[in-house]
């Protein structure tokens, strides 16, 4: 793991939350990106070397919609940057962590991602992300 790449926060209304986080961080988001395969709309803010990702559901059966239904708005996941996602996935699986996807999949912000099941990580959803090769 290289560093915390971003923290994902589930929100009900991306437009409102973009204003809120702009006020909080003192700068606006630098991109908005929809990830149709995940049923989410995302926006990203830079904070030093780290990012905040806001996630809004785009359909009722989106994982974000289900998360908010169960737990309300709030911290959804922590993402760690990795150099080689496949070797990290293999290493973590060997350590007994449960991978939610067996193959890296495309995520927002030009990344390949893999999620770890929260039941194997003290209740925190963990995302691994690697910059997509050019
Ligand atoms: Zn994320």
Describe what this molecule looks like in 3D.
By secondary structure, the chain is of the alpha+beta class. It has helices at 14-25, 63-71, 85-94, and strands spanning 3-10, 31-35, 40-47, 50-57, 74-81, 105-107, 111-116, 125-131. The chain has an eight-stranded mixed beta sheet. The longest helix is centred in the first third of the chain and has 12 residues, at 14-25. The radius of gyration is 14 Å and the shape is globular. The relative contact order is 0.20. The model has no long low-confidence stretch (mean pLDDT 95). It binds zinc ion (ZN). Zinc ion is lined by residues 6, 8, 53, 77, 79, 127. Zinc ion binds next to strand 1 and strand 5.
State the oligomer.
Answer: single chain
Radius of gyration: 14 Å
Number of strands: 8
Q: Encode the helix/strand succession as letters.
A: EHEEEHEHEEE
Derived from helix and strand composition plus strand pairing, the structural class reads alpha+beta
Average predicted confidence as pLDDT: 95
How much strand? 35-45%
Helix content: 10-25%
- How far from one another are the termini? 21 Å
Largest sheet: 8 strands, mixed
The ligands found in this model are: zinc ion
Strands side by side in the biggest sheet: 2-3-4-1-5-8-7-6
Low-confidence stretches: none
Count every helix, treating DSSP H or I runs of 4 or more residues as helices.
3
Morphology call: globular
